[in-house]
Amino acid sequence: MVFNDARVSWRHASIGWNGRAWVFQDQGSTNGTYAQGRRVQQVEVGPGSVVHLGNATDGPRLTFAAARPDVYSAPTAMAPGIAAQGQAGMAPPRTPQPAGQPPHQQPPQPHVPQQAQGPYQPQRQPPHPGQPQPAGAPGAWQGGAAFAPGQPGAPAGPGPQHPPAAQPPYGQPQPGLQYPGPGGSRGPTMIRNLTTRVTRIGRALDNDHVVSDLQVSRYHAEFRATADGRYEIVDLGSHNGTYVNGQPIQRHLLRPDDIVGVGHSTFRLVGDQLEEFVDTGAVSFSARRLTVKVGGGQKILNNVSFGVPEKSLIGVIGPSGSGKSTLLRALTGYRPADEGEVLYDNRNLYKQFAELRQRIGLVPQDDILHPQLTVRTALRYAAKLRFPGDTETAERNRRVEEVLGELKLDIHAGKRITSLSGGQRKRVSVALELLTKPSLIFLDEPTSGLDPGMDRDVMQLLRALADDGRTVLVVTHSVAELALCDRLLVMAPGGSVAYFGPPNEALEFFGYETWADVFQAFETYRDHDWGGRWHGSAHYQRYAADIDAAPPQAMPVQPPSMVRPHKPQSWGSQLWTLVRRYGSVIASDRGFIALMLVLPIILGVVSVVIPAEFGLSQPPLTKQGKVQFNQAAGTILLVLVIGMCFSGAANSVRELIKERVIYERERATGLSRSAYLMSKVIVLGLITAFQGVIICAIGFAPREMPAEGLIVENTPAIEMTVSMVALGFTSMMFGLIISALVKTAEKTMPLLVLFAIVQVVFTGVLFQVYDKPGLEQVAWLMPSRWAVAAEGTTARLATLMAPWDKQNPGNTDPLWEATRGQWLFDVGVLFGMGVLCGVIVIRLLRRHEPEVMRR
């Protein structure tokens, strides 16, 4: 039974016999199931029972009545002509190739499909063996229901339905009228007469118009009448923003053709009537003449056009170098095409990315969740970041449980993601994207590295997602389960389209028996014009010619570079959530905790083994009254400083690269770049400071310390520890630069070693670096130089160590001058270098986010 009401979930509820009574069971719906005014998870029903879906008062109403078993016993007759129609579109079997004949003597001619003439009608592929049939029917009734459960033991089946005729159902237009909506010719979900000067919309129940969408703030926006009879839309400080024609606004005077976007709903004013169009997944999606060029004008994506039927599964295959990944980034807006356009429900994705990004889900090849966390914990943190700040914890957690149940992950909710199989981890990544109920989901190589059984499991999951009302596009190398797809896009070398159409006609089109033969032909005939072959085929005329023939859109919208998407959470809220999540990840990583504790202990102990009779203090005069030098003091400080440099950088050198895929996806959903970096700085900074205290405690405890400090006179060890912590902070920031620069985690270790070695050279302890033009200036860029200087001012290193210039012993290192001002300057430079490193990291992070969001 299907209800065309925005408040009813795709799989809202079910009814079944439990051996004693009929039970109406909520299936994790968003807006709930209600009996006697209360929200229920399950309720026993009988004659006279009433249940509301989506709202306790005016939601679709189901009234239960007793009925005789024979009402449900009649078999459902197949509509005449269905079998014939199902067979008419099938291509005849291809004549097998004679044995011994090489398959690639020349590229075969494209096969001409039967019934190539006439308009294209999307046709669902037959289900894979073992694949469950989708619920509902294309011609399902859209109104309320009077459901009569049969007697116990009676066979269950679809009985006759009799919708009331006197009143049009909730949210439906008047019968016989057409309302061309923002997405084309579909009618509006709701029509409301604006009878007051101010109409407030939002998620809270006391709004004038309630939008039951967690992407919408409690009090989101207002339609306000002006003195001249027009209306303006005013954003009320919403978290995800209010959009007019895809552009974020604070206040906007509406014109007749303007489209207002709020969450998954779009609104349009027609006179004094407000029409709402809810994005329930029935959206069109098409790519028109997409071309991507790299250096020298080389095309890596060449004139790609295709249209995706709504609520369908699309497979994309092709050999290496055919532009599949480039196409995926172009389709999602991560790397917009240089030429062409991507249309989401006839709206330009690139120009309206700020709004439409909320309706698109992307599952990269790598997992987009922290594997150290449990499934439920990871999803709850993700929900906290993606949903508006005024969403209550219970609302978010309820949505998490709905998704866990939908993807059959509830039994694994308490397990760590690392303990799951490859297919289960991919389900978790899909679950993350389903939190916000996207209508369009892209997946990049979801079956990579999986065995054939898991491959089938993942593809059947994607088939079920499409059957539930979403459009799914999957890039894959696997060809074993292509029959589950509704359409297949085959990319050829050079980034052109070689085929687009039903998967069961693809091999016939290429003229080969197996996909191995097709891919071998791609490799053998790399210079062949596969795109031209496609454009000259009857399949192109049937499945893609109308997309190419459509004129490009000309919309006077704000340039993408000026669009600043809203963030669902405030900066402070995002920072707090990120800090808590990062802390949970570290607390769950026992290996990291052990290393964090052991490393500073080892580094501190290493400094203790250095023999030093006088520690870090000034030796007494000799019996002859001569000054003694303490060269060992410089060596001790050198070891401690280099150890702190290594420890600080090692803490952070892998932290950005290992989360790069997670950051890219979360940034596209509204994550603040600076909040993300600051969460790393806070957590890693605390860890590094803790390590600095351990290193100094072990290194200073057995040593004789200077007589007094410059800032903390009675306890110079505290003063020197502060200098060491400042060095650790700066080194940690240098590690983040390395992590943001590299492309793979394997490259971080060589750069970490290089960083530590360079610090040894420029400390100023091994040889003189001051008064050396060029060398001195390079040393200024090294945190170890300033750390030794800060420690040296407290320890009076200029008098502890023998002068570099024996002829002029008074020519000492100016950075080691034992004054308060010099110590403050040295430590200030360290912290200043750390802040500068943070600015550099912010700039580097821009490279790892959608181009339309870079600024």
Automatic annotation (TrEMBL):
CDD domains per record: ABCG_EPDR, FHA
Q: Which InterPro entries match?
A: AAA+_ATPase, ABC2_TM, ABC_transporter-like_ATP-bd, ABC_transporter-like_CS, ABCG_transporters, FHA_dom, P-loop_NTPase, SMAD_FHA_dom_sf
Q: Where is the ABC transporter domain?
A: 278-519
| Primary location recorded for the protein, binned into one broad class | membrane
Task: Report the locations given in the UniProt record.
Answer: Membrane
A single Gene Ontology CC term: membrane
**Transmembrane annotation, as ranges:** 591-612, 632-653, 674-700, 720-742, 749-770, 823-845
Q: What Pfam family does this protein match (any one)?
A: FHA
Q: How does it sit in the membrane?
A: Multi-pass membrane protein
Molecular function per GO: ABC-type transporter activity; ATP binding; ATP hydrolysis activity
Domain (FHA) spans: 1-40, 199-249
Give start-end positions of Pro residues composition bias: 93-111, 155-172
Superkingdom per UniProt: Bacteria
- Positions with biased composition (Low complexity): 112-123, 133-154
* Region described as Disordered: 85-189
Assigned keywords, A-Z: ATP-binding, Membrane, Nucleotide-binding, Phosphoprotein, Transmembrane, Transmembrane helix, Transport
What protein name does the entry list?
ABC transporter ATP-binding protein
Organism, as annotated: Wenjunlia vitaminophila
